[in-house]
Request: fold
Amino acid sequence: MKPSVLVARAIFPAILDKLAEHFEVEANQADAIWGKAEFMARLQGKVGVFTTGGERIDAELLLGCPQLRICANMAVGYNNFDIPAMTAAGVLATNAPDVLTETTADLGFTLLMATARRVSESEAFLRAGLWNKWSYDMFTGSDIHGATLGILGMGRIGQAVARRGAHGFGMQVIYHNRSRLDAATEASVNARYVGKEELFRQADHIVLVVPYSAESHHTVAANEIAWMKPSATIVNIGRGGLIDEAALAEALAAGRIGGAGLDVFEGEPRVNPALLALKNVVLTPHIGSATVPTRMAMANLAADNLIGFLLHGKPLTPLNAQVLA
Ligand code: GLV
Reply:
């Protein structure tokens, strides 16, 4: 008998076919959003689950699903997993790092550029038929080339954003991180380590790529926003909860900062109405990794973690490898 796994959301049919070679698969190609009770009911008898980042795995769920052995997230972020609870229950957690680094950095840079150059706002103006003459100050934004780029969170994606800024646009890159990079890595991305306040005060454009946790909740709140230059822009490609959205919306509405580009939101897919009402924001629906090759690579990695662990005891990208011991 093949082991049983659950795929919690709709996914590429080729990934389901690959999983079906090794497992009994319960899929969700209708892409229903299950509540906790239904998710737990469907997990009964399953040894593995393929999650996509929105499914909460916590102590209560683990207690109700004693056969579960692995949760494979098709996302690099894993704030939907309670890792200590999973480790205590002996359940392996895996994520999908690396394969989305460059694609997500591309989107971060896209938002930076669209925000600095007011792309959404000017396109809306044009589409509304309001463009009837040229004027010298129409949609003037801020320069990207040669400007100071501040990166908060200098992991793989942060470094990929830094490379784009330094090598593609001649930007001065400063960064702040829990731990400083070694000198060779700093040199390779042309970045200078600064304190958090200095980063907010000096940067013309800020990109947030910090992993989300209770400690990083509202890393950017009224205080940090007050440090920003009046023309500065801020981009969030990490998790919505990194920014106090109410404080950000207030600063944007008052014109105290230049603009914001947001791909992630505190209560997504619900978006704070105060942000929706603003013109100086560029908003995208959590599409950082959304290219076909990258989403395919992420899905393959999650599937390979299920196969590697359940068939051979060897997951590719474990988050709590201690449960393997
Ligand atoms: C997307 O947000 C991810 O964590 O992969």
